[in-house]
Amino acid sequence: RQHTLQFKKAMTEYSNDSDRHFFADGGGSSVSGFGDSYHNRVYIENTEIPVETATALIPLPPLQSGVVIGGEYTVDRLIQAGGMGEVYLAHICDENETVPVALKRAKFEGHEHYIRSELDVHLKMNHPNIIKVLSLTLVDGCIVLEYADHGTLSGLNFSDRAAGSKIKEAAGLLDSALQIICGLNYIHSKGFLHRDLKPSNVLAQEEDESVTLKISDFGIACFVGSAVVADGSQNPSPGLYSVGAVGRTDPLRTILRSDGTPHYSAPETASNQFSAASDVWSWACCIGEIATGE
User: Fold this and answer.
1) Dihedral of the CA atoms 215, 265, 249, 9 (nearest 10)?
2) What are the residues facing 59 on neighbouring strands?
3) How far apart are CA 279 and CA 189, in angstroms?
4) pLDDT digits (tens, 9 = 90+) for 177-191
5) Are the beta carbons of 14 and 51 closer than 8 angstroms?
6) What are phi and psi of 268, to 5 degrees?
7) Which is more confidently placed, 127 or 251?
């Protein structure tokens, strides 16, 4: 893990110095080394790769308010920006009614295929605790998703009685925990691992005077085969999967995003090993955070 963190630090410092984002343009499915002489070279699977061969990540220009996507979705504003994607609030006029939607697109040029892969995962999901996709295809490079009007669970603190929240009033801590684990169990039943579950990836939507929590962001989700569960009850040999074993072998995802978000990642993910239990660890971290505010 120390080597992995040093590698990320090296890539970050190189990126900051040059005011660009870089990833190594080489093969390999795991990080076994780290940056050495940050400005000169990096190692991937013990193979030295000159920084000069790295590929620059060029950010796409932001979508401006009022721009119409796909001839029907009018962009309102940016509502969330992650490491690899951006989410915009937009709306569509349907029979004199304005319907809000969320548009997710790649953050960098030439990365539409990552968004297309995420759409493929969304299309395999149909559960009340998973954010719904509203279009079967990309619309001008964007995934069209339902808009969750109560935002994410980030910053939510059930232990703070003074802070009012519709989620706290309508859902409660236990119900919130159960809703998230129900959505996660469904993801596993479809043979997928989410790999980046955290409060900012859980959205809240008001439905019939109640609040429904929905898991979002399948950007680094992996398909590992038949149904998987943390205790192995549906899979006689759930084991640990490696990044390379499930097809996520492109350098960008393998090196920079292979272990999700550190504060919510299970220990084994530091060495690119993960399972359904790793997702459950992340779920427990989410519940601990919203229960205590820490």
Assistant:
1) 120
2) 108
3) 13
4) 999 999 999 999 999
5) yes
6) -65, -20
7) 127
With beta carbons less than 8 A apart as the criterion, state whether 275 and 230 touch. Answer: yes
In the structure encoding, which two tokens stand for residue 180, read together? 């998230």
Q: Give the amino acid at 193.
A: L
Four-residue CA torsion sign, 134, 91, 195, 266: negative
SS (H, E, C) 140-174: CCEEEEECCCCCECCCCCCCCCCCCCHHHHHCCHH
CB distance 211 to 249 below 8 Å: no
pTM for the full predicted model:
0.74
- What whole-number distance in Å separates Cα of residue 229 and Cα of residue 223? 13
Handedness of CA 123, 277, 245, 109 (dihedral sign): positive
Which pLDDT value is given to residue 265? 92
Return the amino acid letter for 176: S
Query: Which two structure tokens, joined as six digits, stand for 158?
Result: 């059930």
Q: Check the CA dihedral 273-274-277-280 and report its sign.
A: positive
What is the enclosing helix (H) or strand (E) of 69?
strand 68-69
From CA 156, how far away is CA 292, in angstroms rounded? 9
Reported as type and span, the H/E element at residue 115 is helix 112-122
Residues in contact with 227: Cβ distance below 8 Å, sequence separation at least 6, in sequence order: 188, 189, 190, 191, 234, 235
Residue % of the chain over a pLDDT of 90 = 44
> Which amino acid type is present at position 157?
N
pLDDT recorded at residue 231: 52
Q: Nearest Cα to 103, choosing from 129, 73, 125, 131?
A: 73
DSSP codes, 3-32? HHHHHHHHHHHHHHHHTSEEE--S--SS--
Residue 95, classified by CB atoms within 10 Å of its CB into exposed (0-12), middle (13-18) or buried (19+), is exposed
Two tokens, residue 206? 């008001």
- CA 32-35-38 angle, 5° bins: 175
